Amino acid sequence: MQFPIWVLNLVLICSFLSQFSESVESSPPQAPICSEEDRASLLSFKASISQDTTDTLSSWTGRDCCDGGWEGVECNPSTGRVNVLQIQRPGRDSDTYMKGTLSPSLGNLHFLEVMVISGMKHITGPIPASFSNLTHLTQLVLEDNSLGGYIPPSLGRLSLLQSLSLSGNHLKGQIPPTIGSLRNLVQVNLARNSLAGPIPLSFKTLRNLQYLDLSYNLLSGPIPDFVGEFQNLTYIDLSYNLLIGKIPISLFNLVNLLDLSLSYNKLTGYIPDQVGSLKSLTSLQLSGNQLTGHVPLSISRLQNLWYLNVSRNGLSDPLPAIPSKGIPALLSIDLSYNNLSLGSVPDWIRSKQLKDVHLAGCKLKGDLPHFIRPNSLSSIDLSDNYLVGGISNFFTNMSSLQKVKLSNNQLRCDISGLKLPSELSSVDLHTNLLGGSLSTIINNMTSSSLEVIDVSNNFISGHIPEFAEGSGLKVLNLGSNNISGPIPVSISNLIELKRLDISRNHIMGSIPSSLGQLLKLQWLDVSINGLTGQIPGSLSHITNLRHASFRANRLCGEIPQTRPFNIFPPVAYAHNLCLCGKPLQQCKGKNQGRISQ
Q1: What are phi and psi of 489, to 5 degrees?
Q2: Within 13 Å of residue 191, how many CA atoms lie on the same side as its CB?
Q3: pLDDT along the chain (597 residues), means of 10
Q4: pTM, whole model, 2 decimals?
Q5: Residue 170, beta-bridge partner list
Q6: 119 exposed, middle or buried (CB, 10 Å; 0-12, 13-18, 19+)?
Q7: Are 164 and 188 in contact (CB under 8 A)?
Q8: What is the DSSP letter of 209?
């Protein structure tokens, strides 16, 4: 039986179509290339950046901004529309930045869900009002740039926004009440700007808020009661503003709160006893206000609190008698500069395994305290008290100690035999009754981790020791002692030094030219000694110097005629033998043209 030719052709055609259909179905779908409108918006932003040391924008080439090659740009694979723009400075590299402005064209990325442009430092100008067109936006992060002007009220139209961070810029004016319309907000960070006025009443509607940081601004008025209604809040930082009034009792209803910082405002009244209700609290910072009354005993109920700072207020005695099992997680406590007359360090502080103990200006008396668990201590500040006796045994077993401040007491010790903990980075013993020489503090065995030494205003004698290579010292203050001898040439080994004060001693000889190798030096005071000779011309290499004083020595000759030495005030060179040249009188025998350089 023969089939007609047309039947055979039909079978072949159907077979071919079936195979073609299978091959099409088995091949992956092609992602659409990016929208031309989105590409044009991105390139307009690129054109508004005049300098890019991050090299991010150099990858923005070609027709398809969605092919993965445009760094920081992501697209929805099904639509080809840009939905993420994320440009961040890697780490804290100070040489990495962008310079320019935010192009209003970014407001044309209508499908954008995430915009992060942060850490660029030199992106200036305003936040474009056109950003209010980005109605799909859930995250707007423009922190740590140099943006100025006002926060656009029109941002209140971004109804899907969950995270708003504009911190670390130069924004001014009031916080727009329209931000209160963004009821999906979970995080608000407007810290480190120059925002003024009150916290908007419209914020009352932000019931989903978990994170609120308005610190380091110029905000005024009281803390609104409604903040205590944000039951999801875990973090509040309103520090370094001009807020007034009492701490609202309502804040202590926030059972999920982990971190509460209200430091450095103008808050008055008592610390409410209800603070003990914050069962989740890990950090409480109320320093630098005008709080009075007592530290409430209820803080002993805070099982998770590890950081407590109520310093620089008007709190008075008595301190609560914290039970041995009270505040079990406490690691850091600061009660400094209140109206406390402790007399001695309370037993509950001495016996805890603390990391930081700061009790400056608490009217402590007698010998230095004995801590029962000294090996955990990292930072101690007992300055501005009435402590007496020696310090040679104080550092025993303080193997983790990094910073110690015992200044402005009446401590007596021959520091020639003083052994400092090996991990110490900062030691401040100024204004005591210390004697002896510096030989055991500064020698070839001095730890490279030691960055600050201040033993000024004591009775230390002997010579300035030689300095070994590899020193990490940044601050050396030996002023107002009985030190004699020369400035060692090896001072050039202190290549990290930023501040040097050897004033009011009996130091003789000339200023070594090697001092000019300390290129990071910002403060230099050699005044009121017996130095002779000239001010070395090598010091002109220290271009970062902000303060210098050579007064009341026996120096002679021409002052280095380079900035900043020729523009320091005349008092910096007064009472020497025969210094001349700007800013003093012209040197004799010098022609006017040379002097005017």
Answers
A1: -60, -30
A2: 15
A3: 44 45 46 85 95 92 90 91 91 80 95 95 94 96 96 96 97 96 96 97 95 98 95 97 97 96 98 95 98 96 97 95 91 97 94 96 95 95 96 90 97 89 93 93 78 96 91 95 96 95 97 95 97 94 93 95 90 94 86 41
A4: 0.88
A5: 148
A6: buried
A7: yes
A8: -
